[in-house]
Design brief:
The chain is mainly alpha-helical and 244 residues long. It has ten helices and no strands. The chain has one domain.
Length: 244
């Protein structure tokens, strides 16, 4: 565990000094949500705002956490940082655990900032329990996204190799998760593919929460599945990194 915290501390220190990465992680989502506000105001669809805005906010957190983590991990490998850690006796599971610890803080901050701006910008009002549960969904999804980024980074030799995974993995999630169109309106093959996406279960939980009057017992199944995604991605990433 000592090595895990050493790597985690190094990642946190690196993030604190990388102003550009922090700006992209925190300011980027805020600008995207502001542009979404302008777009929806132009369409005059206030009645549907919550139905689409909160799930889209979850998608932004998912997308950016995945992309930034994957790019940084590739930079670490190409820069020789990982190789030096392995030479120093760090096990691969400890390296991955350290990166997870380091990025947990960024994922938590990102989820809190984006959700807060969305509620303020679109004047959405929810009970404290609902807000907590929404944040919990966002946070678990961000953790899954970080682990997905770690996993995908093992297949890339340069930063540019990450970008083909966006149309292959991330964009199909948006269309098949039920975020834009209710899942039962998709073709059967689309529904099955959608169920393979962590965003599908995050969207299910969000849709239940914004309806009001539900608690953790209602969205518990979706949260458990998201947590299972995190565990599976952690195990798979450890194995693929060992083979990289």
């Amino acid at each position: 565990m000592r090595h895990v915290f050493i790597v985690g501390k190094r990642v946190i220190t690196q993030l604190r000094h990388d102003k550009r990465l922090l700006a992209i992680s925190l300011v980027g989502p805020l600008l995207i949500m502001y542009f979404l506000k302008i777009f929806l105001d132009g369409l005059n669809v206030a009645a549907l705002t919550a139905r689409y805005v909160i799930p889209f906010t979850a998608f932004i957190v998912h997308f950016l956490a995945f992309l930034l983590c994957a790019i940084v991990l590739v930079q670490e490998r190409t820069g020789g940082t990982m190789e030096r850690m392995f030479i120093a006796g760090f096990r691969r599971s400890e390296v991955i655990g350290g990166y997870i610890v380091g990025y947990f803080g960024l994922a938590t901050l990102q989820a809190a900032v984006v959700l807060t701006e969305t509620l303020w910008l679109f004047q959405l009002d929810y009970e404290a329990a609902t807000l907590f549960n929404l944040f919990l969904v966002f946070w678990i999804l961000a953790v899954v996204s970080v682990l997905l980024g770690i996993f995908i980074s093992t297949f890339a030799r340069r930063e540019a190799h990450i970008f083909p995974f966006i149309p292959l993995v991330i964009l199909p999630e948006m269309f098949l998760s039920g975020m834009l169109v209710d899942g039962d309106k998709l073709p059967v093959w689309g529904q099955w593919l959608g169920r393979l996406s962590p965003l599908h279960y995050a969207n299910n939980a969000v849709q239940e929460l914004i309806k009001g009057g539900v608690g953790l017992e209602t969205i518990g199944r979706d949260l458990v599945i998201l947590a299972a995604y995190a565990v599976v991605l952690l195990l798979v990433a450890s194995r693929t990194l060992a083979e990289a």
